[in-house]
Amino acid sequence: MSNLDFKNKKVWITGASSGIGEALAYKFSELGAFLIISSRRENELLRVKNACKNPENVEIVPLDLEKYEQIADIVNPILQKIGNVDILINNGGASQRALVVDEDLDVIVRMMKINFMGAAALTKVVLPGMISQKFGHIVCMSSLAGKFGIPLRSGYAAAKHALHGFFETLRAENYDNGIRVMMVCPGYINTNVALNALNADGSKRNINDKGQEQGLDPAVLAEKIIKGIKKEKLEITAGGGETNGIWVSRFFPNLFAKIIRKKK
Fold first, then answer.
1. How many CA atoms lie within 13 A of 58 on its CB side?
2. CB atoms within 10 A of CB 259
3. How far is CA 138 from the centre of its chain?
4. Nearest CA to 229 among 83, 24, 53?
5. pLDDT value at position 206?
6. Does 156 participate in catalysis according to the annotation?
7. How far apart are CA 112 and CA 94, in angstroms?
8. Which of these is catalytic: 26, 68, 156, 188?
9. pTM given for the model
10. Which residues of 196-229 are buried (b: 16+ CB within 10 A; e: fewer)?
């Protein structure tokens, strides 16, 4: 494990108004980091800021990842104010629940914009600063759906697969620049991701999944992410027995195909 000290490190977290991002904000604040927290909901970001151990060291920057083409114009002035980011956690995202045959193409496009293009755009803005200081950690929130396709999540899985291609390439290109990239592939985490998922027509689902309700506490995953950063892990997984799907799909693909097609 490295001797990385998070005190006064500038940590940017997207999707910080709830769930995993909120849990990460609290953990990093306890460790003395300077936080930049983003999501669409400014009022919820303010709530999180006020609940942090050191709220005076928390900067709120509302971002809509779906409007990825606006990110550079919003973020560059912030970087001019605070300087280079040390740790970027691309956590913000959205999910879906729809069969391919039923879903609007626009829902697939939205999944790609929110889950992939938003993360790529923000990373592109902060990356030059990391390269210039020869130091940086980028954490990318993928999913088990980033390792294999899961029924009802085609657009979501496509976007998460895209994250692996992009960020694993970025990792290879920038290792000698002192930049480390870690992919996080959780299973069921007790957040509102299923509740807020999009239906086939793009409307909000408003139904939670049993697996989600019984999932891992986001604070536990936050701890694991922080340990992973310190250990310079390439990838971590978290959750229950569902995470075994990674190994089953790799070593027993025919068996896995039979199992996964029953998950509709």
1. 27
2. 12
3. 10
4. 24
5. 86
6. yes
7. 10
8. 156
9. 0.96
10. ebbbbeeeebeebbeebeebbebeebbebbbebb
